[in-house]
């Protein structure tokens, strides 16, 4: 290091050319020796000293000796470029600054060409020392005190800049001397700078990586220093492109690590949101130009260099989701590659298709989606490109990358179909898949024999990707029209070309593609119960009268299928379904008689059950006696025969018992499923009648609506009859059909509530039609009377759950009756008056019930008194 000191002091103290040239030559030899022998610390020190001698950070004080130092630095770089390693970054910073000074010397405004060193100093300036902070605070306090002393006029005094701001301002306002400007713009310096980049082709494989790393770092710093400028600095970025051209002849093993570094730099520049769009577009255009050049080079087997240098486009697209201009420019680059170099594309198809897939599924801009579809259709319509794609797909080679090309191409259209934001493009993509299907049949299946069958390998490479795309669209697309069309296309494909498939292929198709489509039907608990409601509600205006007739017919069938008749059929006494007392229209009764009826029914059932038990015991005893007589009469048989017979009998009885358990379990599950489905149908009808468009549909006749009320009526009477038959409910538990006493209170209250609501809505809707209105009124009042009679008959001590369940139905009835016009109210209030009086005997803690009763009596008072 004593050599360094001996060279530094004379250089700083002298301006004579001879001693300065000796000092620079000494530094040049020091850099060369330390580099050849790998002495990194010495090399870094000598290079740093020579860079310091250039004095580029102090433009106003540049002298002739500083220009001489620039020459020496460029000369030594050209001599020992293979050994500079990490020093390349500092050297290239100097080259960038020299190029900036050349532009300034030629008359360009210095503010439009920011200094790259300003970007490097930002991090340094942000970490100010404690002394600087303290001095700045002292100056600020002094400034504030001076403003206070200045009084009113002190408010307009400007704050004095701190030392750091003063230094930066002084640095920015420096200007070049005329003689120095002439030296900087000399052709010799420019030639040296150009040779640094042209000679990069002569660097070793390791040295060129160090050079490129330093160049990309300088490029990023240049852009950061000028990102707010209208014309950002791109000197190093342009040189990156030039270096790629100069090193085009390198072997692929050397090129791969070089491109990894450059690719990351291009991705960082093009996908950073804070970057100037001019810089981003220049970077993408540079990538495009390089790709065009690289595609002219034949890709050797086993290499994926095309995939490597096209990958930056994919990452740029994925990292610029908020900037659609960048995505469109990348798509334009893909379009040019496909049109101009499509025949040369090999592994380069993969990043192109992956980028198209990403945009097809994720973009929210219609113009980007349309651009993706257009590019995919370019591939589809061009025979040369299609042949290339299908050659990869149908090649005899088992290479995974070749099989993947056709799959990736198909998935572009698949992702487009699954993007629900643009249904028009999705339908166009399905048409494109259809054209692919026809092309596959005409060009891939070349054997035209009558009994030609595809091999499993051919099917997996060509047909399975296409069929799987249809399957995936059907299973995951959100657009119903797209799903429907995909399902049609899938079955058209299978029906039209199914003769080409072997039994093994059909097995795979059924197991992987067809059965999963219908698998949801085997898991009814996972079915979205609201899908059918939405289908009918959203499309009810599109249905004709015939459609509604079919829908009502299916509803009736569903009600029949979901009616849990097993509840009565499983009765051990086989008494069947019995009408409840209220169901037989016995209006006059009281609570005492009803309680007696229930008590008598329970006692009667106990007697029947006891008699049944005795008869069973008797039959068992009789069987025991017969068995005893048989045993006595067969005392001469051997003990072994008796033992084997007993074992067989025990085994048969065990199997019989298991069958009975399975049968009871099956009945129980059937009852539960039917009850749940019946409630879902009732809920569906409720939602339908809540929809005004459904009720006012011209194609839906009043007769069909009355048929719907008939369904609800049957559901209500079924649940009511079952709930009133306490004997049957108890026997079902005794017979182990169910675990606890069952009830259909939910079905009874739900069907009654929906029935009453529907009848009221239909009544008020058809007021002008006297005939229908009269029939509806009659039907409505019958059910209102029946339900209120049932409500007031409940014993509050024993049937509290029934009261709570039916109370909302009673409230709805009273509210609906209160809305009658005066004439209808007078006609029907006499029927309901005494029943409403009986409601007063019940618990009126519910505020809604109290209000409904009060309004009823108020209206009675207004009309009759």
TrEMBL record:
Segments for region (Disordered): 614-638
Domain Sec7/BIG1-like C-terminal: 676-858
Domain Mon2/Sec7/BIG1-like HDS: 293-364
Bias-annotated ranges (Basic and acidic residues): 622-635
SUPFAM superfamilies, A to Z: ARM repeat
Identification of the protein by name: DUF1981-domain-containing protein
Naturally occurring in which organism (per UniProt): Hanseniaspora valbyensis NRRL Y-1626
